[in-house]
Every structure is written in C-alpha cells, then in structure tokens.
Design goal:
Layout lengths: L5 E4 L69 H18 L4 E3 L1 H12 L4 H11 L6 H14 L6 E10 L7 H11 L2 E2 L7 H15 L10 H4 L2 E14 L10 E6 L5 E8 L4 E8 L2 E7 L5 E8 L5 H7 L2 H5 L6 E10 L1 E9 L1 H4 L19 E3 L1 E8 L3 E7 L14 E4 L4 E7 L5 E7 L5
Parallel strand pairs: 1-5, 1-13, 3-4, 11-16
Antiparallel strand pairs: 2-18, 3-5, 5-15, 6-7, 7-11, 8-9, 8-11, 9-10, 10-17, 12-14, 14-15, 17-18
Helix pairs in contact: 1-2, 1-4, 2-3, 4-5
Length: about 450
C-alpha cells in the first residue's frame, strides 16, 4: 500500500482483576482464549498467516508471536528517570481534563514509549521533551518498569500490561521496530484489513475489551481505522482488594458538595472504627493512604479542608509530590468516610493536550516504515471504587473493644471534590490518577 497511508496510535489503560498464573508481558492471549506464548516461542515474521475475519463474525484471530523474545529487566536501566518523566506528563494531562477526571499516566507513557521506537528524529525529540524519556536506555527502562509491575500481580490483586500492534495486512513495519516492540514491550502482532474498517475496528475493540475485562468495550470506531497502516494499542488492567476493607453494613447515604456547590446524595463508606493508617497534613488538605492487600499498591485520597479548595490544592502539587507522599507520612488512627464511585473517561483525543506542546497529527514515524506519520492518539479509562477495593482500566480490578476507642488522630470526610492517585510503591509509578467533583455524574 502507498507510503502516504496513515498510522493511528492509540493509548489504552489498565484494569484491576483476579491474579493470573502467567504474565501477559511476553505475549498476551487473544480475547478468544488462545494460550499466551512462552518466552521461548520461535520467532516468526509479519508475513505469517493470520486467521481471517469477516464483518459478520468479528472474532479476534490468533496473534502472530513476537518477532523477538522478551528481554529480562536490566538492573542498570534508568527506570526511575523514565517513571519521573511519565508521571510528570500524566499529571500535566490530568490538569488538562475538566471536572471529573480519570486517566492512566502509565498506560499513556508505555504507548508513546513504544511508538518512539519508530519515531523520526524530530518526532523523537518532541516526545522526549513531553514525556521526559531518558536520552539512553529508554526502552530498557520501560521494560524494567513493566516487569516490576508484573511481579506485583499476586493473589488477590492483578496488574496486567499488554501491548499489541495491528498492522494492515498489506503493510510491513521495519524489522528493527518490531524487534524493539517485542523485546522491550512484549508486543504481539495481529494483522487486520483496515479497508474493511468495520471488521478491523471490531477486532481491535474486542481485544481491548478482553484485556480490560469489559471495563473499556471500545476506543476506536471504523472511521479511526479506515485505511490506516498501523494501530498501536496498550492496555493496563488493575484489580486490587483493600488491605482493610470497608464493611457494607456501615455504608450509608450522605451529602456530597460538588464543584458547583450543588448537594447530591451518594453512598458513603465508613470505617467501622478509626483505623491505623498513614497520612500527611498538607497545606489546605489532608492526604490518607489506603493500601491494597500486599501493600505494594496504595490509593492516596487527598481531601481539601474547604469544599471549594481543590483547585488551590492541585496548584500546590506536582507529580513528584504525589508519587512521594509516602515519604513524609505520619502514622495514626484515621476515621475515614469516603464515597463509593465510578468514573469513566470516554475516548479522549490526546492531541488536544499534545499539539500545543508541538506533537500534532502528521508527526513522522519513519522508524516504523518510510513515510509513516501519526493521525490519532486516544485514551480511555475507567475506575470503580467500592467496599472491597478498586478495579480500573485504561486503553493506552473487625475488632471490638469493651471500652470506647480513643479519639482518632485525624478525621477525614471526603464529601467535597477531591484528588486521588494509585501509586506503585517500588517504582513510584502513578498507575491511575483522578479528580472527583461529582460522584453522581
């Protein structure tokens, strides 16, 4: 097909689910249930046959194995630098969103890090500026972070990262790009016929829905994929149980003051009694840590003192201070009340955020193939928070005492707009980031 056909790049995020016995970071199974490839699977080329797909039966065909084996994590990779840059970019994107907001800095970062393997020099320079990718070892750093996250996927929690390339069945990316995608990102290849845009979009969306356990049923439409040479997709899936779950019997309706001053009634979860937690007293807000089972992951809830104080609190924070909250904590009893909530970010055009920074449609990716340029970049995410824990995805889961308990060291009632972030302790990667201004939307 002609070299002026287009590349569509999509960033997709993660969910939360039950832990699985094998990592998806080598080769992910197709949504149809095909088994994952092992690291020693023989390499194949893009020309290997793929199962046919028709518009009437959009069953995801088996993916071709990666063209190279997944590399082990390099202990000398600049992983901390990679995480810091991606976290900062994710915080910048979060501040670009209005009202209720949910996104996955990690998903967006991995997708663009993978795409950078095929970027032309000018495009790579812009991506490095936006995402803070290390000058040397960026792909090794992404690989190291990904594999550390995979190790944190242990029962009952799951963290799964998956990458897949959907090239048009008449298009052949450069071997060097495919080798980097496989060796550092575990990316599999699944050719589609983008001329049959309905069937191609169905295949991509079915894979995304499978990787995110149905939390994100679609991100592309036929118009997005029509005639494109390559669709690049990342997903992150997270499902985690609270280390100290809330008891449903204590959930009661209460008033939440929205960002517009409206009072809405929503279900609030509450500790049965004050629980020993880590917390931080910030200027104008209180932050409390809600660890998940295993304590490798935690949600930080940042609740302003004043109902209209969230904007000032966000202005006082940055990605580094969010990721490092655990470094300046106190430990004491906290009486916590917080709403149950769900948030969804419908497919969002990342160019609205990226173009003012110099990365616009038309940016060249000659490292993928001659003449290739990007036409679209999308991100979608969803989070569900309840008494048991948290499930999230993006496409870029009792003691009694006879005497009265002592008064808590801190009481937090999240009945006003607040900020939240889910952070992986070891890497300090911000897996999910959000703002809740109205739980009823």
């Amino acid at each position: 097909m002609g070299v002026n056909r287009l590349l569509a790049l999509l960033a997709v995020l993660c969910c939360i689910a039950a832990a699985c016995g094998t990592s998806t970071h080598t080769a992910d199974p197709a949504a149809s249930g095909a088994p994952a490839a092992t690291p020693t699977a023989p390499a194949t080329t893009l020309a290997a046959p793929a199962a046919s797909t028709t518009a009437a039966e959009p069953t995801v065909p088996a993916a071709i194995e990666p063209v190279a084996d997944r590399l082990p994590a390099d202990p000398d990779a600049p992983a901390a630098e990679w995480v810091a840059g991606v976290n900062a970019a994710g915080w910048d994107f979060h501040r670009h969103l209005q009202g209720n907001a949910v996104s996955s800095p990690t998903s967006i970062g991995i997708a663009f890090s993978l795409s950078r393997a095929g970027a032309s020099p000018d495009t790579a320079a812009v991506l490095d500026d936006v995402f803070g990718f290390p000058e040397q070892g960026s792909h090794s750093a992404a690989n190291a972070v990904d594999l550390v996250l995979a190790r944190a996927s242990a029962e009952p929690n799951t963290i799964e990262v998956a990458n897949r390339l959907f090239p048009d069945d008449g298009f052949s990316p450069r071997p060097a790009f495919l080798e980097t995608a496989a060796a550092h990102y575990g990316a599999t290849i699944q050719p589609v016929d983008t001329a049959d845009s309905d069937a191609a979009a169905a295949v991509v969306n079915e894979w995304i829905s499978g990787r995110t356990r149905g939390l994100i049923p679609m991100i592309v439409n036929p118009a997005t994929v029509q005639g494109q040479e390559l669709i690049l997709v990342n997903t992150v899936y997270l499902k985690a149980d609270w280390d100290t779950p809330f008891l449903a019997d204590f959930t009661r309706d209460g008033e939440f003051i929205t960002d517009t001053g409206q009072r809405v009634t929503v279900p609030f979860m509450r500790d049965a009694e004050a629980v020993t937690r880590r917390y931080v007293r910030l200027d104008g807000a209180d932050a409390v840590e809600l660890p998940y089972v295993g304590r490798e992951l935690a949600m930080w809830l940042i609740v302003p003192h004043e109902p209209d104080g969230l904007a000032a609190v966000e202005d006082s924070l940055d990605a580094a201070s969010l990721a490092e909250l655990a470094q300046s904590t106190r430990r004491g009893t906290v009486d916590l009340t917080m709403p149950k909530w769900e948030q969804t970010l419908p497919p969002a055009d990342l160019f609205a955020w990226l173009c003012p920074q110099g990365f616009c449609p038309g940016a060249r990716f000659d490292g993928i193939a001659p003449g290739i340029f990007i036409t679209s970049a999308l991100h979608s995410a969803k989070v569900i928070v309840d008494e048991k824990g948290t499930e999230a995805a993006a496409t870029t889961a009792m003691a009694f005492n006879e005497s009265a308990p002592p008064p808590p060291d801190l009481t937090i009632v999240a009945d006003r707009p607040f900020l939240w972030a889910i952070v992986h302790h070891e890497t300090q990667a911000i897996l999910f980031l959000g703002r809740l201004t109205n739980p009823t939307l």
